[in-house]
């Protein structure tokens, strides 16, 4: 995947197998990161779609799959994260108040300032109003992404 061949169509099976191996490692409790890259039109989206439709992924009810795409000409900040945060917001909205309280990061206010859509979750909106402003944008971004990592880790530990 990081060593993606120029002929993706003929290597789909081996690439799918690499994704399945990563899924098995995750099911065994390890962390796994797969970077799918390649030139435009070479089948990256199709490969991921095939993987997500595979029975191993679909049958894993505990899985939380966040997916999205960004476009080169978009000019929104953090465009690669934007669709993921939208889906994450919907997922957080479905949690019970107790579960949500358990997974929210300490610095959720910084996270919601960088990704305002999170304020659609009432508990996050309330937490955002109670926090003081962070005027330094670099510090804000750093704290927001630390909070995002914390949120994802807490969600992962519950699944």
Describe the structure.
It is built from eight helices and no strands. The radius of gyration is 18 Å and the shape is globular. By secondary structure, the protein is mainly alpha-helical. Helix 1 crosses helix 2 (44-53) and helix 6 (108-114) packs across helix 8. The model is unreliable at 1-10 (pLDDT under 50).
Secondary-structure map:
Blueprint: H1 8-27, H2 44-53, H3 55-58, H4 82-93, H5 97-103, H6 108-114, H7 122-130, H8 137-157
Helix pairs in contact: 1-2, 6-7, 6-8
- The biggest beta sheet, please? none
Radius of gyration: 18 Å
Number of helices: 8
Characterize the overall form. Answer: globular
Based on secondary structure, the structural category is mainly alpha
Low-pLDDT sequence parts: 1-10
Mean pLDDT: 81
Distance between the termini: 26 Å
Q: What level of helicity do the residues show?
A: 55-70%
Percentage of β-strand residues:
under 5%
What's the total number of strands? 0
Secondary-structure element string: HHHHHHHH
Short characterization:
By secondary structure, this protein is mainly α.
Sum up the structure in keywords.
0% strand; 57% helix; disordered N terminus; mainly alpha; globular
């Amino acid at each position: 995947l990081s060593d993606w061949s120029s002929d993706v169509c003929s290597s789909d099976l081996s690439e799918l197998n690499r994704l399945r191996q990563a899924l098995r490692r995750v099911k065994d409790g390890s962390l796994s990161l797969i970077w799918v890259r390649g030139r435009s039109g070479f089948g990256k989206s199709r490969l991921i779609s095939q993987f997500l439709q595979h029975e191993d992924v679909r049958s894993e009810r505990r899985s939380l799959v966040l997916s999205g795409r960004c476009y080169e000409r978009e000019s929104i900040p953090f465009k690669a994260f934007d669709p993921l945060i939208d889906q994450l917001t919907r997922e957080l909205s479905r949690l019970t108040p107790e579960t949500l309280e358990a997974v929210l990061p300490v610095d959720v206010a910084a996270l919601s300032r960088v990704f305002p859509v999170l304020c659609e979750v009432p508990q996050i909106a309330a937490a955002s109003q109670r926090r003081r402003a962070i005027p330094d944008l670099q510090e804000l971004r750093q704290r927001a992404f630390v909070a995002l990592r914390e949120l994802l880790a807490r969600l992962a530990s519950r699944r």
